[in-house]
Amino acid sequence: MGRTVVVLGGGISGLAASYHLSRAPCPPKVVLVEASERLGGWIRSVRGPGGAIFELGPRGIRPAGALGARTLLLVSELGLDSEVLPVRGDHPAAKNRFLYVGGALHALPSGLRGLFRPSPPFSKPLFWAGLRELTAPRGKDPDETVHSFAQRRLGPEVASLAMDSLCRGVFAGNSRELSVRSCFPSLFQAEQTHRSVLLGLLLGAGQSPQPDSALISQARAERWSQWSLRGGLETLPQALNTHLTSRGVRILRGQPVCGLSLQADRRWKVSLGDSSLDADHVISAVPASVLGKLLPAEAAPLARALSAITAVSVAVVNLQYRGARLPVQGFGHLVPSSEDPGVLGIVYDSVAFPEQDGSPPGLRVTVMLGGSWLQTLEARGAVLSQELLQQQAQEAAATQLGLKEPPSHCLVHLHKRQLRTSWLLRGCP
């Protein structure tokens, strides 16, 4: 009899794992188990008034590197080439990114010339930070925080403004707590290999073989910075669902896993309440804390390690405005913790993907809330209501982007640690 593999979690990781298992030369029997009634995990696209697309989770995918190329290859294999919406290298959303510091938006330097020019909010041209980096000695510790690494190599301003904001925007985390080795492995490895991060990134660590296709070649030629899909990113998990079903993958929805146990024959028993599955292998694509609670008693040390991995809450607030314009054109802006502990940043959705604005088109932006502000509220036992999150987001859009009129449409979606809750407000007064 062939092997059986059970995949836990129907988010994009679980779907991708099932996809590659199903396409193996001798594919095993694959069973994907998802606790909720829908697939896609954090990826969720909602169609609003006039056909506008609102992303409640991620809104774009980077095509860079081998991983980016493999994702584009997956898109082609699923027959989604015609649905791709690229952001080309000469587009404002590819070239322009901003920091909100001191009550104003500041464009981040782009290109070589930008490094030699004064670039507020930094007190000196970033060339000096680069020169400092080239002459800084190699670190001796096996790991350190992102803030410590950036301050040691690039100086306190870059650490407290740029890297602080980047960690908030990418991880919704604190740069003084996050590991540079885990979060930015290429920077850590560049210093270890070449003593300098800049030299390491310039010289590279050797190019690994990458797949190729017409879509990948187009992305390279046009220097895509990111891409989405015409109907929203949720089109990708939906297409994967259809493809997996056609290849015989069994997909169980609404089936929370109650526990895992290793049997005498070294096979796994996956308990699903009133039923169970037997598996030769189990692939977990669920949060670490969830997996920790499922493991058997003999795996207690691993369960404790998994349970120690913490997560933060993030609120995603989609706002649409009729007849409004942005003061700048770009991908969006990030906000350092020293400026506003609650607002991580604002993404200018309509700049990158105007095709998703609906008809008549309306300006779409997404405000990301999280970090210490939400952690403080949670620690106090405060109720994170839709009204509170909506108010914070609208105030941020008004203060930071000048969008003072009430939005015509709002979506408030709270990623509460490992729980997912959402609210839909269909006409914000």
Walk me through what this model shows:
With 429 residues, this protein is an alpha+beta fold. Helices cover 36% and strands 21% of the residues. The chain has helices at 12-22, 65-77, 92-95, 111-116, 126-135, 146-154, 156-171, 180-183, 185-194, 197-203, 214-221, 235-246, 288-294, 300-307, 349-352, 372-379, 386-401, and strands at residues 4-8, 29-33, 45-47, 53-55, 84-87, 98-101, 104-107, 226-229, 250-252, 259-262, 268-271, 276-279, 281-284, 314-321, 332-334, 343-347, 363-370, 409-416, 419-425. Helix 6 (146-154) packs antiparallel against helix 7 (156-171). The longest helix has 16 residues, at 156-171. The model is unreliable at 419-429 (pLDDT under 50).
Q: Give the number of helices.
A: 17
End-to-end distance: 62 Å
Overall 3D form = globular
Helix content: 25-40%
Count of β-strands: 19
Q: Major sheet: size, sense and barrel closure?
A: 8 strands, mixed
Q: Largest beta sheet: what is the strand line-up?
A: 7-6-15-16-17-14-18-19
Mean pLDDT: 91
Radius of gyration based on Cα positions: 23 Å
Find the structural class using helix and strand composition: alpha+beta
Amount of beta strand: 15-25%
- Which runs of at least 5 residues are low in confidence (pLDDT < 50)? 419-429
